[in-house]
What we know:
Elements: H1 6-18, E1 47-48, H2 62-72, H3 74-84, H4 88-103, H5 105-111, E2 113-115, E3 118-120, H6 133-139, E4 144-151, E5 159-166, E6 169-176, H7 185-195, E7 210-214, E8 219-222, E9 233-234, H8 255-261, H9 264-274, E10 276-281, E11 287-294, H10 298-314, E12 319-324, H11 330-341, E13 355-360, H12 367-375, E14 383-386, H13 390-399, E15 403-407, H14 411-419, E16 426-431, H15 439-442, E17 448-449, H16 454-461, H17 468-479, E18 485-491, H18 496-502, E19 504-505, E20 511-512, E21 515-517, H19 519-524, E22 535-537, H20 538-548, H21 556-566, H22 574-589, H23 592-595, E23 598-602, H24 606-623, E24 628-632, E25 636-639, E26 642-644, H25 646-650, H26 657-660, E27 666-671, E28 684-689, H27 695-702, E29 716-719, H28 724-731, H29 748-758, H30 764-774, H31 781-797, H32 800-820, H33 829-844, H34 852-863, E30 876-877, E31 884-885, H35 897-914, H36 920-934, H37 937-945, H38 948-965, H39 971-979, H40 981-999
Parallel strand pairs: 1-4, 6-7, 12-18, 12-21, 13-15, 13-16, 14-15, 16-18, 17-25, 22-29, 23-27, 23-28, 24-27, 28-29
Antiparallel strand pairs: 2-3, 4-5, 5-6, 7-8, 8-9, 10-11, 19-20, 25-26, 30-31
Helix pairs in contact: 4-5, 7-34, 10-11, 11-12, 13-14, 14-17, 20-21, 22-24, 27-28, 29-32, 30-31, 30-33, 31-33, 32-33, 35-36, 37-38, 39-40
Amino acid sequence: MVDISEKNFEATIERVLLKGTAPSSTGGEGYAGLPGAWYENAPGGYRRIEPEEYDRALCLIPESVLHFIYASQPKEWDKFTKQHGAEAKDRLLKRLASEVKTRGTLEVLRKGIKSDGCSFRLAYFRPSSGLNEEVEKLYKANLFAVARQIKYSEKNDKSLDLVLFLNGLPIFTAELKNPLTGQNLQDAIRQYQHTRDPKEPLFAFGRCLAHFAVDPDLVYVTTHLQGVRTRFLPFNQGRYGGAGNPPVASGFATSYLWERIWARDSVLNLIQHFVQVVEEEDDKGRKTGERSLIFPRYHQLETVRNLMREAKQSGPGHRYLIQHSAGSGNSNSIAWLAHQLSILHDASDRRVFDSIIVITDRRVLDRQLQRTVRQFEQTAGVVENIDTTARQLKQALEDGKTIIVTTLQKFPVIAHQMGALPGKRFAVIIDEAHSSQTGESTKSLKLVLAAGSLEVAEEEDQEEGEDLEDRIIGEVKKRGQLPHVSYFAFTATPKPKTLELFGSKQPDGRFAPFSLYTMRQAIEEGFILDVLENYTTYKAYWNLLKTVAEDPRYDRHKANYLLKSFVDLHPHAIEKKVAIMVEHFVGQVAHRIDGKAKAMIVTRSRLHAVRYKQAVDRYLKEKGYGFKALVAFSGTVRDGGADYTEASMNGFPEAQTAETFKHDEYRIMIVAYKFQTGFDQPLLHTMYVDKKLGGVNAVQTLARLNRVAPGKEETFVLDFVNEADDIQKAFEPYYDRTLLKEGTDPNILYDLQTRLADFHFYTTDEVNRFAMVYFDPKGTQDRLHAALQPAVDRYLAASDEERVPFRGQLNDFVSLYAFLSQIITFADAELEKLYVFGRLLLRKLPVTRERLPVEIQQQIDVESYRVQQTGSGGIRLKRGTAELEPIKAKDVEMPLADELEALSQIIRELNERFGTNFTEKDRVFIEQLEAKLSGNEALAKAVEVNTPDNARLTFDHIVNDKLQEMIDTNFKFYKQITDDPDFAKTFLDWLFARYLKKAR
């Protein structure tokens, strides 16, 4: 019978690592003469170490450390023993343990340690050239070892499945799981998060270089254990353009990890060139004191290694296209590539390139790329930043500076200068040729736009100009294929001509990128969000509003109000569009991402941007909304006899726009060309598109929303101009995404709700209990898990015939509700409760192997879940009860537009009079309080039969009871009423007057 145990999986990995070595031995003989085949990345060559050989206090294997020193540095060891005699071993080991604790394993392996006048290396790395035979021999002396079930703690006997050692120092740990025994990758991750104490010396930051969670199908990795906050990232090859690993004919889909990545040559290469400790900096470039350990993702590692191999074999004079999606970590990939190309030697031991030129598209050097390249520098003075004059650039090229980082605008100077230096060889790395933030560099726009109308302005600004990508292609083509220059072009969305110029020609005549990391894989691995998931056109939005306008289960007043704005909506009817956009933002967006969500309005021309800014400012002031908008465009716009610039409209210099938009008070950015590409603001949640988009421009524009951020679970696009088919067509070359949401019937939600209930995997009471915990500010994670567990148990007990359709339909319900809730407000609290219940139940249900890559990050998120109220469906909780009070349209009408204005007015008055800072959130609280009062029969009766003065006594008593019930919903408002008698009187007088007005 086949052994399906986890132990057998562990033994299989160990067998590969031990391949080509003698049986376990701790003797000193043979360490300097390990087999030579591994030099070419062959698997195996490790030694087995018994668990008891590991010293828990020192966090190393003493015998392995000493035998490496004996074999590789006998003279230095002899010098050390003459000083310390019998104490030499203990003295060196304690010194080594102290240095690792202080400096970290990476620096100790790279730079060694000093003790009592002696210097010891702890690893030898492959020389960049083969000129030094002695160093090559020492390189082969590195001792690799694997140990199973190591007991790592001095406090208990907990053990790790696998630990890999280099010269006695632990470098990687791994927890292994086998789905055939009922556990998978998720369990390995949970084990690290919950049972591997970060305070243990072995798990301290910088001690081990990486911790791997592994099963037969997937690999995830982290460099920093932080308990439940530990973030594991996928380390998988990709599967048919998406997440995961391709199936293999025999063996395990994850065997690449122990056969290639953990091969000795590969590990030394990782430590020497890829793993980096980086000091974090704030937005102004100041060090924060925090450090992070960077380990490459699989596609980064493979891309850089393949490019190095190709450049070494082929030499200069070639072009390579690296098509890596947003979220792929291009800054790190470029930094690794630049540094390794700078020391690359060919088979004749000649440097392949004299200078590496890194070109970024910002007029002011991209701070992140500049910082990354410099931080990866291991030898001071290698990197030269050129962001001033062409003379400075010319001098750097002539002097043969090793790595030159400069801006895309200087590319013509670079191209000319390289052509004039045929004796030198260059590698040119281009970062996102077309992703400039600044409108003036992206298109050749007129400096002053003085169009007489919006239609003319749109036509003039849409005239095709030459962007920087076109200029680069023109320069490269003009000079032809220079034999001493190689190009490495990084881009997420190459134009056809870019693909043709830099891509690799295929046998069928088409061109393909040298390396591809797809948008789909980046989405499925959780590095970016899918901007098409909640995309809707103006027509679809209008149809949805029309559908729900007369349905009591939805907020029909809001729907009717917005429908009026849609009537006869002219393409240039900016005022009406602003009303639709701002009301949608306030009602459906502003509360998202913990109340920090921002939006972008994409306009047709710079004149449109000016008028949009004016209209948005007027509307925000008129409605009393407590946030602001910014505008971004280049040059000057002349309109109505006045000149407008970005700086004059915003009230501060143009260079500060992006930074100012980070402030909480600014929630909407209005753009014309500028910031449609290259702009990175993770809090951007929603985009309102009022401009024709197509091709690469459509992908790049919508991609402004795709950045991930804590609490950001989705994005939303409302498009007034384009058709869904056109947007889908634009995305097809980069991601085979299909838009499924057009023409959606919201009543499908009720059909799905009924079908899900028919599976009997959960009860209504269980959904209610879960919601009570979820929406309770004092709720805890353990109570959430407990509330979900009955449904999980029933699911596990069911057959696949039931589980598969249930999971599919629950996923459909959650996705559809998430989409529709960004368009319409549901007056049915049951849907909102089922949504939050279903969303987290999906993350807790065991995942099939096909779905796991897509959902694993969500599962990880649930482990560190922070209870928060995210619903916008008007759920109101009664304190201390097990029932939720749903909104029923026939009982409680949602406030009309004039009522909403009245609520906003009282909030403004309270703020002005009492110095409070109540917001739209508090308006919602007042609405909820009024709804409770209007449904109170005792109060209605009191008003009916008593004088106003007597009714007021009952009113105050009931209001106080309701406020007590709602204390957890808005403690700030409750406290202001109880602490400030004047405030309480003002507010209650106003509230009572409104109640009487409605009642009579």
